[in-house]
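FORM 7B: Structural annotation worksheet

SECTION A. Query
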Amino acid sequence: MTTSAEDMAVFAQAIFENKILKPSTRKALFHPSIQIRTKRQFPSEDLTEGAQAKEVGLAYGMGWGLLTKTKFGKAFFKEGHGDGAQTFMICFERHKSCMIILTNSDNGERTYRSLLETLLGNTVTPWEWHGYPAPITAPLARPESRD
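SECTION B. Predicted structure
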């Protein structure tokens, strides 16, 4: 599916304001149906339990990832991957705030942690579980000036 940041923001706002879903539907979407305990999102055969999952109450509702116990309150997230595009959206219910990241790069996931922690103060996303690469921390080299 293709969308825009604006469409996702309108959708998130409608969820927060109970404009498009019946209360029972909203409750079902964000009810933790599956508790996640693994260290990684796609563990294949490795079912090792992860501390991050337990710490934030990681679960899945009806199509949404959930963080059920964070210092910021409950949160829901959605991620997507396609050829040359990466997306991530996380919303915190208590403050009705979201960050929506859409990239046109297969390396876009390298920006998520820095953006979420710096701009939103989000230090609760289970990065290890998502399997996102470490953020790029080295400063970009400046091109040499030509005289």
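SECTION C. Observations
The chain has a mean pLDDT of 85. DSSP finds five helices and six strands in the chain.

SECTION D. Sign-off
Analyst initials: ____
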